[in-house]
Write a structure and sequence with these properties.
The structure is a homodimer.
Chain A (H helix, E strand, L loop, with lengths): L2 H14 L4 E5 L15 H6 L7 E5 L3 E5 L4 H7 L6 E4 L5 H8 L5 E4 L6 H13 L3 E4 L4 H5 L12 E2 L2 H4 L3 H14 L4 E4 L2 H8 L1 E2 L11 E6 L4 E5 L8 H5 L3 E4 L4 H5 L6 E4 L6 H9 L3 E4 L5 H5 L3 H30 L6 H13 L4 E4 L4 E4 L22 E7 L1 E3 L2 E2 L2 E7 L4 H19 L1 E3 L4 H14 L9 E3 L8 E6 L13 E4 L2 E4 L3 E4 L2 E7 L8 E6 L17 H18 L5 H10 L8
Parallel strand pairs in A: 1-5, 3-4, 5-6, 8-13, 11-12, 13-14
Antiparallel strand pairs in A: 1-2, 2-3, 7-9, 8-10, 10-11, 15-18, 16-17, 17-20, 18-19, 21-28, 22-23, 24-27, 25-26, 27-28
């Protein structure tokens, strides 16, 4: 079926329903980062496979809207015969719609695929131009899509309290009380990772992202109405989740959400889809706009979750060390593998670890100049082979029942030049400065971001990505509200939050460097004027000493690196074979002893 | 006249006009930091002299609302017989009004004394409770105030282009074009310092703040309608300001602002008062909400303004150095003066300087534990005398025709203890780190704030104020949009912006330390991957080497301090007497040579 045929089918349906335009975002009803194959509607309609974008199909003509990352890719994947190209930010779809259509035009939008804020603004903007936004949940793409894949449905895992540290009943009770304090009767818990954390369940049907695809209403008394495909709920879930959890199949959504007349329901107009909130409102409930009340408690890991993260990182560190030792042996033997082989090999080392559930994201395995592309994937073309006297960047992570990992190491292949070593050292100095930071209660990631960049800035360099993202507890490898970035992050860092520390440097076509550990926020002990927090590294694997320009490190930085390496050797060493342990000891030898 | 008598007079008027409540903010019609005596309405009505607050007078009973800084002071100055005390943030006046009055109540508000955003929200909140907000510019306090001081009116200065670097016509033309680009016909230029900068005029009737009390409409073609007391305009202003400036007396305000039917007028609902915007709107103009378009161009000083600032700082540095040398001589002779005598002496040293126009703010002259209060004023009680083996903090500045200065130095009196020296050194390390920062285009002050705090944070300390504020060019010593603080500052730092660098440390009842220079943002020369900016110090006076704990300084910090002191000695030295120059050379001797 060609794109033209697909568009013809869509236009046929549009004509039947008297629509003049149809909006197709890259989103499914959970509005998350991950879209399962059967919900890749934008890909089906256009051929565009990027992670963000939107198409608008008119009766005649159509436009596709992507951001700066995808202006090249969209031209490779989408024919100008079918779609005109537009910049998502500079020439937004609504503006284009208003200039392309006449007053009286009807625009079809699936309210499950947009947040409420967007939908309301779109309705206002179209109304101002005399046009009508028509919400339609009988999705036009789904109706036209003949060979649509079937949704994967696997039963969720019951995650034991030895991993979660708190029962679902306890979580629901305390967050219910917080909902009540906001003068609401219930909260719409929309994000699948929020629901999963609240119920101590983990999904098994999405690669890398162990969430239960579902949404819920959490009541002030801790009771919860769960909207979920029943086949996703494993035997024994009632006992596991505790009293007060009522399951509803997806086709009961309208009956449930539409029957809350008189209730005040906390809902986030930016992260929750419009459909769920419109159902509540149309049924007579009052929406109380506010943040998902699960996000902050979920981000502040309890003692059991932090201990689990530490344990998972020891096993993960052992896998990474085995991989690095193997890689060194292979390169010494003159065998230079390609990026795909290396990624596969690393996965094999992880796969044997206790509690391993799968990777936490698709490994970035990048040789030479490929590493200069921050979001490089060796799957998009022919994987490159390692080349002598260069660096190899590998960014990977694992999902374990007791924690989620995410680590980047940059590895010397042969003898990289002085310039590469200089840049590696500047990046590592930033990593160390951030790791060593102490900061008072109330400090956010935006305040600390400069610590990781200052040494690059001094030399006129920078990197064009955030310094750190939040990480879940056997949940999404990207979670909020914590992050370390130039953009303003209003929520302060708090004990138990896990965040990545990953400064980098990228030179187009030449090389890429990133030094990434996960760290956990802890309270600094002692009698201080102000409560002070700091970071403790969770990730345990050596940084490549062969890439250091020792002249650029000060005494404190050398002490930090030696202490970190000593910790790696003493915690990970015991899990290794004698040969690997020998490699690790050499990799972790004190710098003071020379390098 | 007692407060009770004043309240009776107010209530008499309220009864005549059928008001149930009257709102009295601490503000005048310019909504600025400075309030002239004849506009101190809150002080008149309540006796409270703090810099922020609000009173609400009911037919029976009244409330006063202050923030955390003033909870003690308000109880000292205001009798509980007349007013109940409330926290301005935790128990806001509108909430209290709604709970104190019945539906149908009428609340009098002078729209000249509130911004539009506040007024609209207040009207909405009262309306929701069935009450009415009544705008009344025939101010109830003014009508009741029998011995009200007369406003001071002095003619403005014509500031020569040799100081401003750009004619008023040129400024009005380029900012007019920016107004046009925002699809507006005109901008309401509300802030007196914006008008003063735009017209190259400076007021002479407010202490410390050389602004022309006025407001203006700037048209897209550069023409300008100026609302100002005619007696404030000096002879020759027309020629000085150039073509297209039309003067209107204050009583023509309604005629002018009310006659713009069909025009689109850019106005800032947060910084401009409600009255001016309501007049525009009632006259048929359309308000375009947006920032005052003068603020950013004014903040980015041109080459002439920066050169002027440098020149003013050499003269100001000479005055400060003479004062510090004199102080050392006096303390060596065993003469320890009090805070008032010291402040007066410093002003005398400044007063002789070329282009000196007066202080830029009221000097903070604080001995010993008084310096732990960030906003201490020796005028609020008996000035304390210096005490042996302590530190003296002096924060002062001058207005010169070519620039505004603001400097804080902390001075050893006798031999302060090791703890004081340790804290001074940590503060100075932060000052140095911020001064040395390099940062890419797009960086804001919020990103850099941590550099000044990091060394204090490491030891568990912090200071409870911003690190830096913007400074005008012979204008307000506090100007935006630039600042360096924890709170999010969205506008990036740009070349030509002047900002203070003033970390501190305060120990209650014991001592206070602050190290403050003004610095200007400059572009780092050379071929760099990214345009990089840095700071160059404008302020020229030695930091007290006797307060250093040399063991805490690293080699780079020592180099910075030696280089800075060398610059101070070589630029300021030539202006001094031989004796003072000898003192300066000793104060600026390299640390490398011992201390």
């Amino acid at each position: 079926m060609t794109t033209a045929t697909r568009l013809a089918a869509l236009r046929q349906l549009m004509a039947e329903r008297a629509y003049d335009a149809c909006v197709i975002p890259r989103a499914d009803e959970h509005l998350g980062e991950y879209i399962p194959r059967h919900n890749e509607r934008l890909l089906w309609a256009t051929g565009f496979s990027g992670s963000a974008g939107m198409a608008v199909v008119l009766r005649e003509g159509a436009g596709i809207f992507v951001d700066g990352r995808y202006t090249v890719q969209v031209r490779q994947q989408v024919s100008a015969d079918d779609f005109s190209y537009h910049h998502l930010i500079d020439e937004p779809p609504l503006q284009w719609l208003r200039s392309s259509l006449q007053p009286g035009a009807r625009v079809a939008v699936d309210p499950r695929l947009h947040n409420l804020q967007w939908l309301r603004q779109a309705a206002d903007e179209l109304a101002a131009a005399g046009m009508e936004l028509c919400t339609d949940t009988d999705n036009l793409v789904d109706r036209s899509w003949q060979d649509r894949p079937v949704a994967e449905i696997a039963p969720a895992l019951l995650l034991d309290e030895s991993f979660t540290g708190e029962s679902s009943a306890s979580k629901r009770k305390r967050i219910g009380a917080a909902v009540k304090a906001l003068e609401a009767d219930a909260a719409l818990v929309f994000a699948p990772d929020s629901v999963s954390w609240l119920l101590n369940l983990r999904g098994q049907d999405i690669p890398c992202l162990p969430v239960l695809q579902s949404l819920a209403l959490l009541w002030a008394d801790g009771a919860l109405d769960l909207l979920v495909e029943p086949a996703r709920m494993p035997a024994g879930w009632q006992q596991h989740c505790g009293e007060g959890v009522r399951m509803h199949a997806p086709d009961e959504a309208e009956a449930l959400l539409g029957a809350q007349a008189g209730k005040r329901v906390l809902a986030d107009p930016v992260t929750a889809n419009a459909w769920s909130q419109l159902l509540l409102e149309q049924g007579g409930a009052t929406l109380v706009p506010g943040t998902d009340p699960v996000i902050l408690p979920k981000a502040c890991k309890n003692a059991v979750e932090v201990a689990g993260a530490r344990a998972a990182h020891v096993r993960d560190g052992a896998a990474v060390v085995r991989f690095l030792a193997w890689l060194d042996g292979e390169q010494a033997a003159g065998r230079l593998y390609n990026e795909a082989e290396l990624a596969d090999r690393l996965l094999e080392f992880r796969a044997g670890g206790e509690h391993f559930q799968g990777p936490s994201f698709e490994t970035i395995s990048a040789a030479g100049g490929n590493a200069a592309m921050c979001h490089y994937s060796h799957r998009n073309g022919t994987p490159a082979a390692l080349s002598p006297d260069s660096v190899y960047l590998v960014d990977s992570g694992g999902q374990y029942s007791d924690g989620t990992t995410d680590i980047t190491r940059t590895v010397a292949i042969g003898k990289p030049g002085a310039d590469v070593r200089r840049m590696f050292t500047l990046v590592l100095k930033g990593h160390i400065a951030l790791d060593r930071a102490r900061f008072p209660k109330g400090t956010t990631g935006t305040h600390l971001d400069v610590l990781a960049r200052q040494h690059l800035w001094r030399e006129g360099h920078d990197y064009d990505h955030g310094t750190g993202h939040g990480v879940g507890a056997f949940l999404s490898v990207h979670e909020g509200p914590q992050r370390i970035a130039k953009a303003w992050a209003p929520v302060p860092l708090q004990p138990g939050m896990i965040v990545s520390n990953e400064p980098g440097y990228y030179r187009d076509g030449a090389f890429g460097i990133r030094c990434e550990n996960l760290v956990v926020v802890t309270e600094v002990p002692g009698q201080l004027e102000t409560p002070m927090y700091g970071f403790e590294a969770l990730t345990l694997a050596p940084f490549d000493r062969r890439l250091l320009d020792l002249a650029l490190l000060d005494a404190g930085e050398v002490r930090w690196l030696d202490a970190y390496h000593e910790q790696v050797a003493s915690t990970v060493g015991p899990l290794l074979s004698e040969a690997d342990r020998g490699w690790l000891q050499e990799a972790c030898a004190p710098l003071a002893a020379g390098c």
